[in-house]
């Protein structure tokens, strides 16, 4: 059972990549240029709020069917037809400094489902030289982002490779930008509002905060982002404002970070809005893994 697309109560709607300013060349390191993103590489087709007796990993297609869409996809393109982003939200903030997160905190997940856009498939086909594929001058600007996506898929992990450095000038790292669109309309504790306003819309590099799961046949890719792994101040704010999500619209976008000229301009990977999310009333999912010993580190990701 999915959240409805628009309407009263908890629901979702497509994001707007053009509202996000992303890195642009030339010489981003020195000039720091940014511009509105072109349309996202993946289009939103559904969203769910789900929970179970354990933390839910590898949600699709393990626990539900893949969405339709992405007509014309072929494995040879080197990019998945389906992208799933699973934001794993704990109920409790966990320890401040040391120790494990409570192992019985299964929490809930906000799961976004996306399929490859026609532009992504067309550019990927032209880039690998499929017969009859024509890039066209209007889509040429997508090439750096599509090639960066292919590198990301080939690596198959959110972690950096050996010898790669993280940080603001790292390349081929996934980052998330989330912002509350109607923050001014929400009553927040006075002590929390300055922090919430300061970090609203700030990008977060996701290295070390989640796992990728890849289809051996290349059709789908799932990214599990575990808020339990965030710093304690961030976890504390998220948990303390959990009920406030029922009153707001959160616009979320994911971008594969580029730095060098041949990696720019960046293009939003996927984006969506989630409205009035009630994390305590998610759809219950029976997960066979719940019968095993709790493991908040989850299984090892499948590497390709």
Structure explained in plain terms:
This protein has 304 residues and is α+β, with helices and mostly antiparallel strands. The chain contains 5 helices and 13 strands. The chain has a 6-stranded mixed β-sheet with strand order 9-10-5-6-4-13. The radius of gyration is 19 Å and the shape is globular.
Please render the helix and strand layout as text.
Layout: E1 11-14, E2 21-23, H1 28-31, E3 34-36, E4 42-51, E5 82-89, E6 108-116, H2 118-127, H3 143-155, E7 174-180, H4 193-199, E8 203-205, E9 210-214, E10 220-226, H5 232-240, E11 249-256, E12 268-275, E13 283-284
Parallel strand pairs: 4-13, 5-10
Antiparallel strand pairs: 1-12, 2-3, 4-6, 5-6, 7-8, 7-11, 9-10, 11-12
How would you briefly describe this protein structure?
With 304 residues, the chain is of the alpha+beta class. Helix content is 14%, strand content 25%. The protein is globular and about 55 Å long.
How far apart are the first and last residues' alpha carbons, in Å?
Answer: 31 Å
Shape: globular
Task: Decide which structural class fits the backbone.
Answer: alpha+beta
Identify the strand order in the major beta sheet: 9-10-5-6-4-13
Average of pLDDT: 92
- Quick one: biggest sheet? 6 strands, mixed
Please give the number of β-strands: 13
Helical segment count? 5
Unreliable spans are 293-304
Which H/E pattern describes the elements? EEHEEEEHHEHEEEHEEE
Helix content: 10-25%
Note the beta-strand portion: 25-35%
